[in-house]
Amino acid sequence: MEHIIDKRTRTLRDLRISVTDRCNFRCRYCMPKEVFGADYPFLEREEILSFEEITRLAGIFSEFGVEKIRLTGGEPLLRRNLPVLIESLYNVSGIKDIALTTNGVFLPKHAKALKQAGLTRVNVSLDSLNDEVFMKINDVGRGVKPVLDGIRAAKGEGLEVKVNMVVKKGLSDNEIMPMVHYFKQEGITLRFIEFMDVGTTNGWNYKDVISKKEIHDVINSHYPLEPVEPGYHGEVAKRYRYSGTNTEVGFISSVTESFCTSCNRARISTDGKLFTCLFAQSGFDLKAMIRGKASDKELKEAIRSVWEKRDDRYSEIRTEESQASRKIEMSYIGG
Fold it and tell me: Which segments within 126-202 are labelled E, that is strand?
């Protein structure tokens, strides 16, 4: 195993792989319906990486010290036979942790097979416990119950569960404390994500951002919080626990307290492009190399070259001009 570093001395540790660009929700901050409508040109089957291609790339990334893989989308559970991919990744030497980001709706059907295949953890996206608010956010008329059923199913199968809540002013900021009360009682980690300018279609405006500090202060006034040490270098969420308990709250604050200096994540899009930043405008086409019969050695050298040239720090230098630039959509690159 060898470790590679970028121009800012950041190592490569985590790999996020988007397995589909499709989703059953149309959340306003991710896939607004007026853009991702019935005529939207989603990727065709032959354009997306196969399970064999994904597993091959995972094996190469593991040679650089990658131990953790997160499968994303879109909604990854829309990808048929996903447990087959998870089992293949589980058998890749060096991969120790396989996680999944999902809206949770399909977990009652798939949680058992996912766990048996080797999945370790799920992050479930949920922004409100209020049906009216939640339906306004997901824009497909879906209530909260199916998501809560999915969370229970995942816990019941022994999967570690965290809940991710995006907070947007005027939309979900009044849902903070109801979410805290519920998931504190359930003993489930709740993580608050600042509304980010990912992609170009979500109507991002800094005025809509509720900062990590504001959310922390609201919670702390009801339930005193104490900081928790990071589990590893480059951990995205700033961790706290409710005093006197082991239940945690996390904050992902890419807007107001950026973590570019410790970012060690690479991302592979649904169609096999390598991205070194969530806010990137373009990626390196690994799929073209794979289908052009490149050897593992050639793929490894290409990945090394991309990472060693990496100089991304978008959140540190965000400006009105940069936020307006055309960026890859969240549903394409994954979270």
Answer: 160-167, 189-194
